């Protein structure tokens, strides 16, 4: 054992051998903002009685006060403060972390690290620790066989953030005043017993305990109180033979006691839902227990619920039931009752007519009532209305069983990694029919029709594998050397490659991992004449643009003077050398010159909006006729004939047409100057189907096939900009250019199905797009947004903030404006 006296010791400290370090009088280890402070790399290390502070604060560094990598480490009785991450257990086994006080650096929430971060850890014991600040208190990822007991967590986003971890227990912990007490997701064999989850009243989340896609979970003897929502269950358990048990908990004084967001097979025994009937109205009553002293009120309320669930119940019956339930609710005192568990029993609903005589209710209903919930009697607390439940996406119950099978076998798929989908209709049919294990390389969750009859074909479609058609005849297989152009060969369908990206939730100030599926495919070829037609139509502008871009080409060689070595003497420098030499000075030896070859090193990705709104005709945005002239029939008829003649000779153009023509001009100009460039289009519907079309990739040369693809740039669906920008950023990062530019061309704000709480919400999509642009900027890419939406300033000033953007008020000037903007960005 080494006893360390008081003082300040400079970190980082790396421990690679078995050792016990015990501080006396709280010695300080200060990392000086240079990476980790203490790294436990060897086995059997004990660290006790230190103040550990001053790690690096850059979030990308993942720097921590203490990093534990070696087995059997003991970190006891330390104060860990002013660090990015508190304790980072990276692959640690059989570690003991106890009696520590942990507070991460006082940074904005999105820039903080977790207080205790477990990554692929096993057999860890976390006991009697006190966490007062962090992004999340305990963050579990792929960690197993861990005990978390007698800890206290406050002031964090999640007390427990628990994902993809199994066989862990949380016992007798206290989680108070966090945004979420605990979130258990995508995990199995979890025990939560004797914990306290209180004070989670965040406007964005505010849940005591979240169970999402979790199986074999036991929640026993916990106190869950004073939260916006006590317990929220979403798709847990995810399989019909799984289970989640709630036993003997006290769930009280929450705005909503239990929120069920799926058809989960939840077993509820002995739970105290004092202030609501949510559980009873959603999941039946045969396993629910209520206080005996309120049996009459509960029996009446349950009878009313049963009455309105009958097929013959009408809208009027539902309205009268709501009034009757309200009368019962205000009759129950809103006080804190500490009831013995033995005082609870099951309750049978009253007969419908006895519980709520419809005639009596109708006769008395006209007079109304002035009663209020809470605050009316002695000792009553003020009643708080339930908060709106945050939108968490569409629930797809038909995917529950299948997706668990897929998740168990899914591989890889981080942002930018390719995903292949070799599933066949026969394999899926066998999986659905027999629930057998199938060796899968990937999975893709898509929006599916609720009808089970269409389930198979829809899943195959969303997975990018065509479903078998009825009556399809088996033909000769296509050889590996086929191009799809030979006699008897069918045209080859575009290969779809799937990439997964995170999405930014500005309310939670965190990413939703692997939230969006970007499906990349080469755009099909269209009419051969479009490209040349656009060049002919804008011949004058093409010549002018080409001339302007030729001026941007650098000289092939440039004379560089004042060099220590070169092709020849620089006369001016040589004269200066002679003068200084004769004057007795010490002249410089840089008296040569040489010619250096100068080349532009620019790569640009153009991202074109192919949403349905680009189908709008240009002339519909501008007023073509003065309303005052409608009174003059001759003027109106003359205007109408002229307009009709113009439409017949030259059909009106759409926004998408001008986008395509602008792209033709720009491609011609870029070929002149020699910059690397890629042209991409994007559209889609929902987070599972973000379509990313390759018109020209960086490694492709401009040929007739690429020219033909431009004709197929057409309006399709919605505008989910965030994942499209992230994928374009990934494309740019594959190039070796020194200067990288991302150019976004759109006709309006980002908007898509599920891109926010509903279709009317705008902030979520704007903030995710802003975050995606910021991510590109952090990678050294220069983003620029160009929109033809005249109201674009309203959202672009938020979305782009300190980045470049421009609103083109005159849409028809787009073909000339786009090359000019590119010149400005790259000169």
Structure characteristics:
single chain, 827 residues, alpha/beta, 12-stranded parallel sheet, 18 helices, 48 strands, flat
Quick synopsis:
The protein has 827 residues and is α/β, with parallel strands linked by helices.
Give me the secondary-structure topology.
Blueprint: E1 2-4, E2 8-10, E3 13-15, E4 19-23, E5 28-30, E6 38-40, E7 45-48, E8 51-53, E9 64-68, E10 74-76, E11 79-81, E12 85-90, E13 96-98, E14 101-103, E15 116-119, E16 125-127, E17 130-133, E18 136-141, E19 147-149, E20 152-154, E21 158-163, E22 166-171, E23 174-176, E24 180-185, E25 188-193, E26 196-198, E27 207-212, E28 215-220, E29 223-225, E30 229-234, E31 244-247, E32 250-252, E33 256-260, E34 266-269, E35 272-273, H1 278-283, E36 289-291, H2 295-308, H3 315-331, E37 344-346, H4 352-355, H5 358-364, H6 400-409, H7 425-434, H8 455-462, E38 497-505, E39 510-522, H9 530-537, H10 539-552, E40 557-563, E41 568-569, H11 571-582, E42 592-597, E43 602-609, H12 633-649, H13 655-673, E44 676-684, E45 690-696, H14 704-710, H15 721-733, E46 739-746, H16 763-778, E47 781-787, H17 793-799, E48 804-807, H18 814-826
Parallel strand pairs: 1-4, 2-5, 3-6, 4-7, 5-8, 6-9, 7-10, 8-11, 9-12, 10-13, 11-14, 12-15, 13-16, 14-17, 15-18, 16-19, 17-20, 18-21, 19-22, 20-23, 21-24, 22-25, 23-26, 24-27, 25-28, 26-29, 27-30, 28-31, 29-32, 30-33, 31-34, 32-35, 39-45, 43-44, 43-46, 46-47, 47-48
Antiparallel strand pairs: 36-37, 38-39, 40-42, 41-42, 44-45
